[in-house]
Specification:
The protein has eight helices and 21 strands. The protein is α/β, with parallel strands linked by helices. It is globular, with a radius of gyration of 23 Å.
């Protein structure tokens, strides 16, 4: 492919910029088109490179020097996140706080601007939640201008939680120096491009987080526990959104960062992670390899065709009988781990500092059917199933119930 721009190097730095070609946007790195095949998270980089990934994204720059060096060793790039203050502790009308944040951003950009693996700057992450105001976006605009003055070789992105007309209008008015919009989109991803067009966004965009439905987007029990999709339902949702809303928007959507390359406790230990706490990969990892390379894994992750549990969403008596079954596309060579666990005692925003569930009962079987007794202690629980194969893959399902 013919280079779009000459190769430009500064102290090992590769020049990155957006180029408009006819009606299409192209991210050019070192003069060549670059489509982001990325993940949110900075661990397991060898695994990422192996399946065709090319970029990682962070939310803050505390470990950026090490992360950038690790990415460079594996031929990966990195969007370096610069965390901006959120409403719970930061007041964008407070001149002192805003000035301190401005100087902090100056130090972060100066420290990492010459890293060869640097792709983009990511200013903030969902800082507009509950605080979508003109003073916030004026501050973001000032930071975008500062970042571009300190580093003209890498584009600047700001990252929002979904989009609406007001957000887009604020960004266009107060932060015109932002080169690309990053959007964290889960249940709304299918309509994202249509909404961006309706709201008048004409610059490129990147899907900076996507994956399963979030706990805020699913149905809930009478006591407020969210229903989690099985790992295979997540994979089906993942495939549809990726093919329809990322691949088909090439030339406007510059790529994506799947969430989360690793695992985290948020509502449950399995909700968002592309891997399990015990290290196994989920079906979505196989899908990313297929999307990015065209290869289908010859040893695929177990796939759940149907999941049923007799107590899903129900209030039951202590010691009641629980029946559950999982039917799989292929059940050969699999192990089944069944766990009755408590709900996390307190849901926290983004799972930050959320305690993991307590495991009450554990049963291991060689089939996808089980009958067991509920605990005697009253409270909120889930029956969680993990199905593992011999090549490091796993499928998951769970069912919330209440003992009264």
């Amino acid at each position: 492919m013919i280079s779009l721009l000459p190769l430009i190097f500064t102290q090992g730095l590769m020049h990155v910029q957006f180029v408009r070609v006819d009606d299409r946007w192209i991210l050019a790195r070192g003069g060549k088109p670059y489509v982001i095949h990325g993940v949110g998270g900075t661990q397991r980089l060898d695994d990422l490179a192996k399946i065709g990934g090319n970029s990682i994204r962070s939310w803050g720059s505390e470990k950026a020097a090490t992360e950038l060096a690790d990415a460079e060793k594996r031929g990966l790039t990195m969007t370096v996140g610069i965390w901006l203050g959120h409403k719970s502790y930061f007041d964008y009308s407070n001149e002192k706080q805003v000035n301190e944040q401005y100087e902090s951003v100056r130090k972060q950009v100066t420290a990492h601007r010459n890293a060869p693996a640097l792709l983009l700057w990511g200013l903030g992450n969902e800082m507009e939640n509950g605080n979508n105001t003109d003073v916030l976006w004026k501050a973001v605009g000032d930071l975008a201008k500062l970042t571009k003055s300190l580093d003209p070789h890498h584009p600047v992105m700001t990252v929002v939680a979904e989009v609406n007309q007001e957000k887009i209008d604020f960004i266009k008015k107060y932060a015109p120096e932002v080169d690309v919009l990053g959007v964290n989109s889960y249940g709304g991803l299918a309509s994202l491009a249509d909404r961006l067009q309706k709201f008048g966004w004409t610059k490129p965009y990147i899907v900076t987080e996507f994956g399963t439905l979030g706990p805020w987007e699913t149905g809930k029990t009478a006591w407020g526990a969210a229903f989690e999709q099985t790992s295979s339902q997540k994979a089906d949702f993942f495939r549809k959104n990726y093919t329809e809303s990322i691949q088909k928007q090439a030339g406007w959507c510059i790529g994506s960062y799947a969430f989360l390359w690793g695992w985290k406790q948020e509502e449950t230990p399995t909700w968002f992670g592309l891997f399990l706490p015990t290290g196994e990969k989920t079906e979505r990892v196989d899908l990313l390899e297929e999307f990015w390379t065209g290869r289908k894994n010859p040893n695929p992750v177990p796939r759940i065709a149907n999941w049923e549990c007799s107590v899903t969403g129900k209030k039951i008596a202590p010691g009641s009988e629980i029946k559950a079954s999982a039917k799989l596309d292929s059940a050969a060579g699999l192990t089944f781990e069944w766990v009755i666990q408590t709900e996390t005692p307190e849901q926290k925003r983004d799972g930050d500092g959320e305690a993991a569930p307590r495991r009450i009962t554990v049963a291991n079987t060689s089939s996808g059917e089980l009958t067991l007794s509920a605990p005697r202690e009253k409270g909120k629980y889930r029956l969680a199933l993990t199905i593992r194969n011999k090549s490091g893959g796993a499928a998951t399902a769970n069912a919330p119930f209440f003992i009264e």
